[in-house]
Amino acid sequence: MTPRPSASPRPANRPRPAAARPARRAAARAVAAAAAAAVALTTLAGCSLESPEPLVLGFTATSAEPLPSLGAGAADAVSAHALAAHQPAEGSVDVVVQGTSSASSHDLTPMLTADRVQQVPDKREAAVADALDGLGTDVAGLTAGGEGLDLLSVLSSAAALHDGGSIVVVSSGVQTADPLDLRQLGWSFDPAAIASTLADQGALPDLGGHAVTFVGLGRTAGSQPAPSISSTSRLSELWLAICDAAGATSCTDGGAGASQDAPIASSAVPVVPVTSDATPCSAPLVLSAAVLFGGDSADLGSTADTALQGVADELGRCPSGVTADVVGHAADTRAGVVDGEQLSLDRAQAVHDALVRLGAPAGTLGDVVGRGDADPVVDDLPGGVFDDQLAAQNRRVEITFRSEDTAS
Question: Top-level CATH class of 285-403?
Fold first, then answer.
């Protein structure tokens, strides 16, 4: 994993100040000079240089994130890719956006004429810098093609374009779509356990042969509050674990994106509640039943302990006088009928017992309750027709907190 950049550049869609452009071009000049020298040597030797591997940029581009931009991580990857081009169109990059049916191609190859690549270092880097500015302008106009935030789908679309190469995704990573809805997972999860569970379920894209870089994780805007420092760190660990479990050749957190501008996307994105580092045991912890249990079962799965260990640790940090209740919920399978009480109670009891075994203070844990399908998060029977994807949001176990003055 590479270190996060210490600073972010200005948004890519804005004109670069006079002091910044020479600095960017100075760095690019060195790369261009090396590339030109390599071209000369291989030409003399009668050899041809290898083409650069494919590069795909992916964006969630939702209303819950800053205006899309390249940021240092993406801009550097694009610049290096374009400067490695030796033939026309070799500097092309593909761009995929959440919810759109096809990718767009952007050619940044530094050209001398319509069919000849520029080889003069200064002119190569100038051409790439100008093309990078143009790409930044295009990127700033991207918007998601649907509601919610679904980084998993963007990874899948990006990986499907080529058998290998590099993928750079720009996203907050605050996923609101199944099977990784953070409204259900909450923030007290074990990244490795979640990644392993999703892999076992066949829910991950095939990233084999791809080097993946994430840019902008934890950077939110619009109605989505920013996650805490520790939650952002855990979010990074989650996506890196998912990337690794999906078979990528390398997985890197490329740091924050460049833009702090308001988004232009308008499609709705559900809000994921966030908690403050300074106030443990205040906001409810929501655990997806899919992570802990098999279908219609109250038996904890093989990875449940790993997923619950972070919750047990969190309960150990609860202030004195705070009680944690374990509340189970079920999906609504029959309109107008309250059922699922026993299954939701059994699941809540299984979570309670596991938390005690994993070191949660017994004195902090309070009631174990099964609410059945009485408190759905969403209507999983739209128009009277059962929707299993919506139902997955209702199958959950919550840890809720109350203080002594509100305890019954």
Answer: alpha beta
